[in-house]
Design goal:
Elements lengths: L7 E5 L6 H9 L17 E9 L15 E3 L2 E10 L15 H8 L3 E7 L16 H29 L8 H8 L7 H11 L10 H15 L2 E6 L4 H11 L8 E4 L2 H12 L3 E2 L8 E2 L5 H17 L4 H12 L3 E5 L17 E3 L5 H8 L1 H5 L1 E6 L4 E3 L9 E7 L2
Parallel strand pairs: 1-4, 1-5, 5-6, 6-7, 10-14
Antiparallel strand pairs: 2-4, 3-4, 8-9, 10-11, 12-13, 12-14
Helix pairs in contact: 1-8, 3-4, 3-6, 4-5, 5-6
The chain binds guanosine-5'-diphosphate and magnesium ion.
The site of guanosine-5'-diphosphate (GDP) has 15 residues, from α1 and α8.
Length: 401
């Protein structure tokens, strides 16, 4: 995670799969101008949201969010979405991933690989028919693995050519070489043990090295697949086939239609329908021309079949499920409101396995330093600093100062 505590979800994929369409649909939000601090700086970084059930109703209160918004008991908590264009296909020709692409990727915490499931774009993103989306999934995984492997090999060389002392461990050199990926020595040790390849890199053959690179990659750059263009029958057929293929069990594949999400949001903005992003239903509220109504009814059939347009789902699957980020509300044990009369103004997205003390440090370093205990505002139970925060906890921190 970046120092400013906000997560970045990277949208990746070859050209013409629908990255920009997904990005626009996800970041097209009915919030006031000026609430888009990122778009002015960098058009490829936008604000998207993850949905979290609001805790305020459990306390018979109404929340007043200071960031994002709350609709019908669902908090929309902001997060950053990045359109990481520039994936260069054609690695087989020795081109590989572009340098800019790699440094942009390094700034993301989790990836959504947007794949054209309709099969109507070839590996380079040119129009075709009957392309197997599995080739795109395999391509990106293999490319990322090669990137990691290259850095891993440098770490091994560093170990082998370095000044060898008694306490010189391979995991130390690898962690140092791979620090940009955010892997620690302990992390490397755990993965080496999981693979059972031992701690002497002289004993590692090419397959072992690649396997280790892949483990480190999947651990530090987790990914979901957005199976896009699912509004087409070709994509639906591919989706059935690929989700039944056990070779792809390791991936989280979310059926998705960027077009449908965009159409529903536009219709909602125009007053034609009531639609809350991510929902599996909507209500027609305006007078519609017959063709607009027919178009919306086709989308209704689609979201009823797949549960939603999938855009919100893909974002949440990435951040909450795959990355394991934990939403926590700072609150007060004697009434949720703070001194300014705001009720649950914040909902923090914390790294997996965060403790109450880390939560306190996230509020402010003074609060972390003065930490006495936390209070679970639902039960009024005291929690020690090692308490592992849980999703939707409402916590007050009691300090010495
Ligand atoms: N049917 C369908 N087409 C889509 C969808 N999303 C994007 N497209 C189309 O795919 C093409 C490429 O989209 P774009 O967002 O520019 O892709 P990018 O190059 O990955 O950013 C455009 O013609 C889009 O209209 C979708 O959900 N369904
Ligand atoms: Mg684009």
């Amino acid at each position: 995670m970046n120092a400013d505590r906000s997560y970045r979800i990277g949208l990746v994929g070859k050209p013409s799969v629908g990255k920009s369409s997904f990005f626009n649909a996800a970041t097209m939000n009915d919030v006031p101008e000026g609430a888009y601090p990122f778009t002015t700086i960098d058009p490829t970084v936008g604000e998207a949201y993850v949905r979290v059930d609001c805790a305020a109703p459990e306390f018979d209160e109404e929340c007043t969010p200071s960031v994002g918004y709350c609709e019908g008991g669902t908090r929309f908590v902001p997060t950053k979405l990045v359109d990481v264009a520039g994936l260069i296909p054609g690695a087989h020709e020795g081109k590989g991933l572009g340098n800019q692409f790699l440094s942009d990727l390094n700034e993301t915490d989790v990836l959504v690989h947007v794949v054209d499931f309709s099969g109507e774009t070839d590996i380079e993103g040119e129009p075709t028919e009957g392309h197997d989306p599995r080739d795109d999934i395999d391509f990106l995984e293999a490319e990322l693995d090669q990137w990691y492997l290259g850095v891993l090999e440098k770490g091994i060389t560093r170990y082998e050519t370095g000044y060898v002392t008694e306490d010189d461990d391979i995991e130390e050199d690898l962690a140092e070489q791979m620090s940009a990926f955010g892997i620690t020595e302990d992390g490397i040790k755990r993965l080496v043990r999981r693979l059972g390849i031992g701690f002497d890199p002289d004993e590692w053959d090419d397959a072992d090295r690649l396997a280790l690179a892949r483990e480190i990659r999947t651990e530090t750059k987790p990914m979901v697949i957005a199976a896009n263009k699912m509004d087409t029958p070709e994509a639906q057929a591919n989706y059935e086939e690929i989700t039944a293929d056990s070779d792809y069990d390791h991936l989280s594949i979310v059926p998705c239609s960027a077009h449908a999400e965009r159409a529903l949001k536009s219709a909602a903005e125009g007053g034609a329908i009531d639609y809350r992003p991510g929902d599996g239903e909507f209500e027609i509220t305006g007078d519609l021309a017959p063709d607009q109504e027919a178009g919306l009814e086709r989308i209704r059939d689609f979201i009823e079949a797949y549960g939603s347009t999938g855009v919100q789902d893909a974002i949440e699957r990435a951040l909450l499920d795959v990355l394991g980020v934990v939403p926590v509300f700072p609150g007060g044990a004697n009434g949720l409101g703070n001194e300014r009369g705001e009720v649950l103004p914040d909902c923090y997205l914390l790294p997996p396995e965060s403790t109450a003390e880390e939560f306190a440090y996230g509020l402010h370093s003074d609060i972390g330093e003065g930490f006495l205990h936390a209070i679970d505002c639902r039960s009024n139970r005291q929690l020690g600093k090692a308490y592992a925060v849980e999703s939707r906890d409402v916590l007050e921190v009691v300090t010495t100062n």
